[in-house]
Design a protein that fits this description.
Layout lengths: L7 E2 L4 E3 L4 E7 L5 E7 L2 E7 L2 E8 L1 E5 L7 E4 L3 E4 L3 E7 L3 E8 L2
Antiparallel strand pairs: 1-3, 2-3, 3-4, 4-11, 5-10, 6-9, 6-11, 7-8, 7-10
Length: about 100
């Protein structure tokens, strides 16, 4: 899906790590929450309460998933999931574009 229609957009940006990671929150008609964001080069650690499905739209992300000792790489067109109530690390060598879907189970 290249675009979302009939969405509600939160005007205020989500800004993390001194502006190196930014996103905008959108809500689909069915209430599903997503964020569309940009990650600048660097390494970051995130925590999440909800399960997340992360799609890499452009660039490449190296990810240390919860419970893993090895980094995995994801390029444009690939995705990965993060379990609820966990922390994970992301490393980017280039500007990367992503879409995150929050899954409430």
């Amino acid at each position: 899906m290249d675009k979302f229609e009939n969405v509600t957009v939160v005007k205020k940006a989500n800004v993390y790590f001194n502006g190196n990671v930014t996103s905008r929150t959108i809500f689909l008609e069915n209430g599903l929450r997503k964020t569309l964001g940009i990650i600048l080069p660097g390494q970051y650690e995130f925590g999440t309460a909800a399960k997340e499905h992360m799609e890499v739209l452009a660039g490449k992300l190296n990810v240390l998933l919860p419970g893993s000792k090895e980094w995995a790489s994801f390029e444009a067109g690939q995705a990965f999931e993060i379990p609820a109530n966990s922390k994970f690390k992301v490393s980017a060598d280039e500007v990367s574009d992503y879409c995150c879907t929050y899954i409430n189970e």
